[in-house]
Amino acid sequence: MNSESAKHVFSEKVDDWLMGFYDAFEFVKLVFREAFSGGFEFTEFVRQCYSIGLKSLPLISLTGFVTGYVFTKQSRPSLMEFGATSWLPSLVTIAIVRALAPLVTSLICSGKIGSGIGAELGSMKVTEQIDAMEVSAVNPIRFLVVTRVAAATITIPILSFYCALVALAGAFLNVTVNEETNVLAFLEHGFDSIVFLDIITAVVKATSFGFTIGMIGCYKGFNATNGTQGVGQAANSSVVLSMFLIFIEELFIVQVANWFR
Amino acid sequence: MKSTSRSESYKVKVGIFVVLGIMILVAGILMVGTLRKTFVSKIDGFAILDDVNGLTKGSNVWFSGVKVGTVKHVAFVENSKVKVTFGIEESSQKFIKKDANVKVSTDGLIGNTIIVISGGSPEAEIVEDGYQFRVLKEDSQQDMLKTLQENNKNLLAITADFKELVRGIKGGEGTVGKLLTKDDLYQKLNSTLTGLEAATLNAKATTVSLAQFSKNLNTQGNFVNDLLTDKQMYGDLKQTVSTLGETSRNLKETSTSAKSLVTDLQQTTHKIANDKTSTLGVLLHDPKTANNVRNTLKNLESSSAKLDENMEALQHNILLRRYFRKKDKEEVKADTSTQVTTLEKMP
């Protein structure tokens, strides 16, 4: 028992968790080093942008539209009690721009892209394709990881802008059906309460969420073990961990943004 | 070759995707910038307030209900006052005069806190950059709620009084209570009302009669109407009244004279009655003198009769007969001409 304890600093689980944290930190360091050490794989980056961004666009558009419509529909009765339905555009725009658009986009992408990256890289890892790339003098970090992380970091903010646009369209549809509000009046009322800090915060959030999704997916895939079972675990854990980290980051960024308000 | 073509296609699609995404971002930034008047030239104004009621940087500034700028800075100054610096777009500057006031308000009952610029006379100068606005103090929502609370208390007290009043009425207290509960009072009131109704009917009939009477009076040719409308008659009446006045005065003078005369007569009578030495006193009081006077009158009467006989004799005297005949003729002639004149004058 004593010899078992002597092998670990705290306990096996805690030590593993801390080791995993350290490995992740080292992985991020490695990715950054490779990203800025020259020789960027632009074609692969464009392909990943297409795969991560454009292919997610229909799903994001549908989700965003439904989110905006439903959020407006659900908010109306509460505001109606105060006779403040004219505040709906303002309320919905604040909610969409500040929180919903980056969050919904990231959660959808963490499920779709994070799991995809994790599974793809995991299967490449367990089938030793990554090792083969190394043998054939192709830097797997630069080719596989940097391109995916960069594509996720760039396309997810862009997807969140699309998401905000279609969510506002959904909200407008609900508002105009009930209140017959003009689109200009809707946008004017909606954006009247928005400040530059909200837009900057939304961009920062979406960028960090994209980076997290790409990085977690790649890390989990790159560290997949135990054959096909490991691939499934990598896909699953990349989704769970990226979602968890997205909420943590959301909390942190909101707190920091509020210092500047 | 095929791979290169696919890669080019990806690049185009991704390029469009990124460009559209950036356009959405830019549109959002422009919209916020336009609404926040970020890209508009502004002048600064400020006001020092006691309470800003949660006003923050970025809050709107309204002038006549139009957004003309935003709050730039909120900071404490001495004596716990708050200096609020706000930007006003230059295009609105010419409409805002130096005698305008600012106050902290809300855009709606539960809306955001805003700065409202109001007032300003046309002859006043236009505000300049860095101008300090006067602050208009008015009741805050808390003050209004306090007043409302006071009203509620009053309402409660009134309700309690009313409750007490209704209870009293229900219990038959007071005039109204008795009226509602006592049957005899009701009967009396009912009979009073019946009498009142009859009186009203009589009054109505009287009114109708009066109206008829008034109508008759107003009929042309009626004496009262003439009296009121005929100017000539008024003049005559005035003349008559004046004459009556004159007559009255004359009568008064006559009465005075008559009174004086009576007084004189009384004095004279009294004098005669009391003074036995005067002629009339002697006549009234002395029987001897009275007999003498009576004898004298008898003698005068017989003398007169004798004189008549003498005169008759003289008429038949030859010397004087002609004179008397001539005189008779003239008298007859005079009578005849008088009768003819009278007949001619008759219609």
UniProtKB/TrEMBL annotation, chain A:
Pfam families: MlaE
Annotated TM spans: 52-71, 91-109, 149-173, 193-219, 239-260
Superkingdom, natural source: Bacteria
Single GO MF annotation: phospholipid transporter activity
Keyword Transmembrane helix carried by entry: yes
Gene Ontology cellular component list: ATP-binding cassette (ABC) transporter complex
Species whose genome carries this gene: Runella aurantiaca
Keywords assigned by UniProt, alphabetized: Membrane, Transmembrane, Transmembrane helix
Entry keyword annotation includes Transmembrane helix: yes
Name the record gives this protein: ABC transporter permease
InterPro entries, per the entry: Permease_MalE
